[in-house]
Amino acid sequence: MAKDGPNWDGLLKWSLSHADGTQPTRQLSEEERKWFMEAMQSQTVDVVKRMKKITLVMQTPQHVLVDHGVTSQDIEDLLDELQEHVESIDMANDLHAIGGLVPLLGFLKNSHANIRAKAADVVRTLVQNNHRSQELVMEANGLESLLSNFTSDADVHVQTQALGAISSLIRHNKAGVSAFKLADGYTGLRDALASDSVRFQRKALNLLQYLLQEDVSDQTIVTELGFSRVLIRLGSRDDAETREAALGVLLELASRKNDGSGCSSVELRQLLEERIEGISLMSQEDLETVKEERQLVDALWRVCYDEPSSLGEKGLLVLPGEDALPPDVASKLLEPLLRASAANGNATEKKEEPVKLL
């Protein structure tokens, strides 16, 4: 049967008869059969109705799906379609109302790695800039499943997709951030930075920088867990985006150490010297592609050693044709910190305004 494609007709027959656990199996009417086939095949169906049909499939036990010729690829295709639908905030919030959220989160524990990864990606879309969906996923214990996949799954693609979903779930979500920290999420980020996957590392760096910008006190946790050494290693990687992200986090950490201890590492100075030398040997074309890295290296040097780096003397900080003055990278990165400090200082005078979501 599987070789001829999924037996949607038979699957619907089973699903309808077992939807509430009480109705006996019955023959499909022609109207029911036509309705189901049109819903599964038409490209212009009603979105809510289509989501209901996808939910019906997600609620169906795995062995029944297999018996009706539904493959793991078929499920991935359905999840792809569902992801397109929940890009709309209204549709995303409707998914819970029609009973689709819980079975979607259930796919995070599916035996197929690709389905676990795809389910996490759908959750990422579902909760992105959507406070209501963030709340619903948290209430359904979705963060726990995502954290498990992020820290423990044997497939790095599953881990990466889970981290992407976590990042969207906890952004501008204080309850989510607190739960992430309580679940030792920072240790998971440190382990992700030590992985061999560049994409996994980038996602971890992005979330790490966001968390540090949101809460200055997290610097203590990051320092105690030994992030600096890992970040210094990443600052010399071949991948330019990884280098820039690592240098950005190092600048966050160094700038917040008023006693200068954030720059005391011999390894950090060696990294900066190596990056200056590496930049000096680049072609004009390559120099143009690492503009932010040049600025980050100089900003770190200024913060740590209270003097400009040699990039300026060599004419490598501002290239011909670029703006006369490079952007103040340090101020840009520290702006969230300054805002947070000011807000904390005035906490007794004025309650902080809630973050506005899109």
UniProtKB/TrEMBL annotation:
InterPro entries: ARM-like, ARM-type_fold, Hsp70_NEF-Inhibitors, Nucleotide_exch_fac_Fes1, TOG
SMART domains, sorted: TOG
TOG domain sequence ranges: 46-285
A Pfam family matched in the record: Fes1
Gene3D superfamilies per the UniProt record, alphabetical: Leucine-rich Repeat Variant
Name of the featured protein: TOG domain-containing protein
Gene behind the chain: A03p038120.1_BraROA
